[in-house]
Amino acid sequence: MIMEFTKKDLNKTLRVKPADMEKNRKRWRIDATGKVLWRLAVDIAKLLLGKHKAYYSDFWDAGDFVLVENIDKVKVTGKKLQDNLMYAYSGYKGNLKTITRELVMKKNPERLLTFVVRGMLSKNKLRDKRIKRMKLEKGTTTKYDHFKPTVVK
Predict the structure, then answer these.
(1) Coil, helix or strand for 97?
(2) In which element (H, E) is residue 68 found?
(3) Which residues, 6 or more positions from 47, have their beta carbon under 8 angstroms from its beta carbon?
(4) Which one, of 124, 121, 153, lies nearest residue 59 by Cα?
(5) pLDDT by residue, tens only, the chain of 153 residues
(6) Using CB atoms within 10 A as the burial measure, which of 6, 51, 84, 136 is most buried?
(7) Residue 105's closest CA among 74, 136, 139, 67?
(8) Which of 101, 115, 148 shows the shortest CA–CA distance to 44?
(9) Closest Cα to residue 127, out of 139, 138, 137, 115?
């Protein structure tokens, strides 16, 4: 049973139960081949947040599941791979580690895309739940075909 949530009276706030939001989560499949990293991350973040739905709110977890394929073939414009640095700090003196995004892209492209998408999500208690709904694959996969995901162009 698919329910469409729309407002009948525009002066009243639309209330949707969390159980109904959970039932109506869609699955999306995105092919990252040749797409620009940050533009791709914006599209993923919008789907994870649920901004495309009528009942979106930053304090409701109304987003969908997103499967991103071919993340190793994503494109980065300009000199961002060489110039932009990523930092890891353990909390101890002198233990700030820096690495270029080029090395991160070669070693672990999932880490880079997760880092960029995580920065675009709302900074609240729901961010970790939302980022867990994103699945990243280096190649194409049939592992999630039984969910019948909708392909995003």
Answers:
(1) strand
(2) strand 65-69
(3) 28, 63, 64, 66, 152
(4) 124
(5) 455 656 666 667 677 888 888 888 999 999 999 999 999 999 999 999 999 988 888 888 999 999 999 999 999 999 999 999 999 899 999 999 999 999 999 999 999 999 999 999 999 999 999 999 999 999 998 999 999 999 998
(6) 136
(7) 74
(8) 115
(9) 115
Nearest 5 degrees, angle CA 90-CA 97-CA 136?
85
The structure tokens 């009948």 sit at 8
- CATH value of 24-76+108-152 in 3.30.1330.40, 3.90.226.10, 3.90.1180.10, 3.40.50.300: 3.90.1180.10
Cα gap 55→60, rounded to integer Å: 9
Q: Which residues contact 72 (CB under 8 A, 6 or more apart)?
A: 109, 138, 139
Distance CA(89)–CA(113), nearest Å, equals 20
Give the type of residue at 75: K
